[in-house]
Amino acid sequence: MPGTPPTRFVYLGPEGTFAEQALKSIPAAERGSRTPARSVPEALEGVRTGEADSALVPLENSIGGAVGVTLDELAEGEPLVITREVVLPVEFVLAARPGTTLPHVRSVAAHPQASTQCRGWLRAHLPDAVVVDVLSNGAAAAGAAAGEYDAAICAPIGAGRHRLDVLADKIADHPDAVTRFALVSRPGPPPPPTGDDVTSLAVYIAHDRVGALLSVLMELAVRGVNMSRIESRPTGEALGRYVFFLDCAGHVADVRLGEALQGLRRVCADVRFLGSYPRHRFPGTGDRPIPAPAGLSDADYADAAAWLARLRAGDLS
Amino acid sequence: MPGTPPTRFVYLGPEGTFAEQALKSIPAAERGSRTPARSVPEALEGVRTGEADSALVPLENSIGGAVGVTLDELAEGEPLVITREVVLPVEFVLAARPGTTLPHVRSVAAHPQASTQCRGWLRAHLPDAVVVDVLSNGAAAAGAAAGEYDAAICAPIGAGRHRLDVLADKIADHPDAVTRFALVSRPGPPPPPTGDDVTSLAVYIAHDRVGALLSVLMELAVRGVNMSRIESRPTGEALGRYVFFLDCAGHVADVRLGEALQGLRRVCADVRFLGSYPRHRFPGTGDRPIPAPAGLSDADYADAAAWLARLRAGDLS
Amino acid sequence: MPGTPPTRFVYLGPEGTFAEQALKSIPAAERGSRTPARSVPEALEGVRTGEADSALVPLENSIGGAVGVTLDELAEGEPLVITREVVLPVEFVLAARPGTTLPHVRSVAAHPQASTQCRGWLRAHLPDAVVVDVLSNGAAAAGAAAGEYDAAICAPIGAGRHRLDVLADKIADHPDAVTRFALVSRPGPPPPPTGDDVTSLAVYIAHDRVGALLSVLMELAVRGVNMSRIESRPTGEALGRYVFFLDCAGHVADVRLGEALQGLRRVCADVRFLGSYPRHRFPGTGDRPIPAPAGLSDADYADAAAWLARLRAGDLS
Amino acid sequence: MPGTPPTRFVYLGPEGTFAEQALKSIPAAERGSRTPARSVPEALEGVRTGEADSALVPLENSIGGAVGVTLDELAEGEPLVITREVVLPVEFVLAARPGTTLPHVRSVAAHPQASTQCRGWLRAHLPDAVVVDVLSNGAAAAGAAAGEYDAAICAPIGAGRHRLDVLADKIADHPDAVTRFALVSRPGPPPPPTGDDVTSLAVYIAHDRVGALLSVLMELAVRGVNMSRIESRPTGEALGRYVFFLDCAGHVADVRLGEALQGLRRVCADVRFLGSYPRHRFPGTGDRPIPAPAGLSDADYADAAAWLARLRAGDLS
């Protein structure tokens, strides 16, 4: 029900992965129920059917890129909207059963993306260990706990949950790597504008690539709407047909973003609104919203609207 | 007073020129008073001071181009608006006092633009005649009537008014030449939209030419607003500073033209609105309004606005 | 050595997957040696170190999208170039040990992308079977052959190699799904233009997304260069920093693509050339190259170049 | 003959106008013969037929705008090229026969553009004088010398030539008003590039105004070519058909202007080259050429060309 805060949360499991850690950073989720799902489609299906109020799923990673399955699931089926984003530093640890020391590690379980992100560390510290691919960070920790592997690359929360010791922390090659998660709900009025919001869209364009994509960008550019992300995904029909996922600065309730959205609606084959929500801020880093370009502030929009109203009334003074 | 139909008309004189002929094609002017002015500034000043309700002045000629003084006078001083346009075929005649025949014509009085437009005819039919420059078509006719010259190039109305015989008609080299006149009034609510209107603007842009003019055109292009005319005039400050006079298809009351106007207001140094008025139509020529491009019709605008309203309310069905 | 045809090929293994099938469609590879690699980085590293002449790796899938690891590996490290593309229909089969029949299948091994693509079929024909995620199509077939699972979703070549029976073929929900592979070599002169070529690029743009991406597209659009693909990948530095992978119609040796490439080089932070190669054609489907837009054919380019040469010589005839 | 410096000059007469004054500022003309023509067409015809080597005609005035007849004559007929520009301050004086004093002036002869430019001065100092329109500044001075009018508004050179006293100088309302003249010759190799040149063009575009003009500006913008002037003139075919006169920064021999010219040739209905010549500089005013935008300098062009050559040779190092 719109307006009712969500109490039942689902997240991409298993337990002990970054998604659970991200969900716990949301106060309402800290108080509500938290259920792991086996996959992103399962998590979102739980929201669609009403079994859960909100789902926390990964959107993109600063190393691995977009999480395709999340984008595909948001673009198809019953509409869902993002109401909140959480950006979490990706901190990988090497964890093992108590008593294990680094020189004894001969096999390491890791999700392929995790081992890729720690390649430099592994080469330097465990040049002779065998890296075994497993299907999730949580599965890696579980495998190490069960003694199938000597150690696991996993999230700090995974080490704790499986009672593993941390042999080394911050082992990722890019110390600034982050993952961005989305909290997704059934449609309802978006959270109120905060002055520093993001609007996510899935945009389908006609076949001719250069011209059509130029039109999309021009609709945004003439309104001074900045894009912080653009991803393309195949539509599944044929090679060369794409849907673009855009993150734009601004809120659907803003005048200029609203005008740009109407423009996209007119020039695109289809536009799916995926939500307006507060931008995740990084306190203490000088992180702040990008101001509107000259002539495109809200005040400029208000001035132009008032001017047009006067013209229409015949008042040219 | 807005709403009161004009009854006192002033036009670019002298009597017997195309401007008087154009004014007479307007029913209200046919019934009202019609006073010639010695110049375009004088005609417009009459409207500004309230001595006249409306002024008929030339805007452009399909051969000679824009009438610079009219544009300059509209762009400066107290605001005035165009409420109607009249497009008149330019038909030049060679007129002389009764009894004169072509072989006797040795001197022809003509305004320089008129003799330029009849150059081919003069070369073919009066190769030895001296062409004397005078300051208006009316002055040419008056001079011929006074016996100062053997003949005059003038408008048909000028021949009649000065009781001259027409020795040859349709003597212009371009048989399709036309002049476009504007009926100008003090500001007031524009005439209602007809579905085939013109909106005239004076647009001031910042110094960098390519980028700034590109911005102006993009504001129009993304809303599918077509331009039927663009003229540049120096602002008088320095070489390289221009004001652009645009005629756009559409009415200030239209949604998409309104959105484009607001955009121009934001990106331009200044925009002066010069009126929205019905486009002059040429019956029987297949002349009809250019339809809006795909995705930019009024229905498309209404659809996009309704969609945005639903998004804002949280309705994504 | 440039000019020497490759004889030692490596491909993304294990044996029995689509990549091996694609490699075999290339005559030189049919005759040469073919070695499986455990990963895309390993396959490309083999070419970089000179152990292999060429590597066949997946670029994108019409359902799953870009293969991020391939793009990342091409964009970084020692330069490599694509010399050929192979587009292969994705035909999944359900395979099992001889004697197994569909009603007996309770567990199905599948790579997560494969089971995603066959979701509809599985729901209809094996609603009660457990789907077990494994790390490749080849591993699924091997697991079924070893009796770990009742059946596997794999490529036809995988069923044959592991002596499995095909219980059902063409089980993918999108019957037209294809995977596009690239044959990658060390740098050398590109294959000669065929009149229907593709040029692949990795393009880095500055931070402001709308404006910078607009500039890239304008460089292509003014030369009439069509894009058949655009993918964004994070650069790994931070969220919001991307490298764009573009496939453009044309060959680096073409005048107009050459002019566009120079333009990109000037406006982008960096451009990496990833090869010009013949476009994969689909015989019998009416598939043919998109003609150049009006005014942008090679003949138009030649005419403009000749005109400029005349102007520079002072010949305006 | 190309290469031979011109010695026979013609200019827009009569004697004693600004054009003669401008011509005298050119050293070769100071030494050569100088013949007045009665009109711009006559002056240019003299060059076309070979009677004169070069013609000096007005191009535009910072108050009155473009000189339409000059543009029209350059755009039609046998090609001519501008080889030099001269920008002259417009200094109007009030001149009268010796002995006349300001209080006695009751009639003032003036070309209409001249009296327009001095309107403020006339209102302040000669509020009761009658201003009589005449056809040129030279004719005004001649009329005052002949006693037809009490005084004349003319150029300083006109007062001297007709032995008139200057009653008041610098009487124009805009003290910075200038006129720009062009020295026009038969086609030949353009003067060598100076690093601060202007290239003039006449550009014909197809009917749809916004799209076609956008294309023209984009061809310039992507090469960083700045426009210092854009004028539209009717083509004479019908209202709404225009030819655009552009002045672009750069020389036809420059790489980037050459590339832009080729682009215009391809996208426009027609392009007429009107010459490349050194920009008039105003010493002591801080006047200097506008530098190329980032990424569009000659060095950037050379770097991109060298890079493309390497790519084509297969050298990606």
TrEMBL record, chains A, B, C, D:
EC number(s) per entry: 4.2.1.51
Known catalysed reaction(s)?
A: prephenate + H(+) = 3-phenylpyruvate + CO2 + H2O
Against InterPro entries, the record matches this protein to:
ACT-like_dom_sf, ACT_dom, Chor_mutase/pphenate_deHydtase, Preph_deHydtase, Preph_deHydtase_CS
SUPFAM superfamilies xrefs: ACT-like, Periplasmic binding protein-like II
Gene3D superfamilies for the chain:
3.30.70.260, Periplasmic binding protein-like II (3.40.190.10)
Domain named Prephenate dehydratase: residues = 8-186
Enzyme class, first EC level, given as a word: lyase
Where the record annotates domain ACT, the positions are 201-278
UniProt xrefs under PANTHER family: PREPHENATE DEHYDRATASE P PROTEIN, PREPHENATE DEHYDRATASE-RELATED
Q: What is this protein called?
A: Prephenate dehydratase
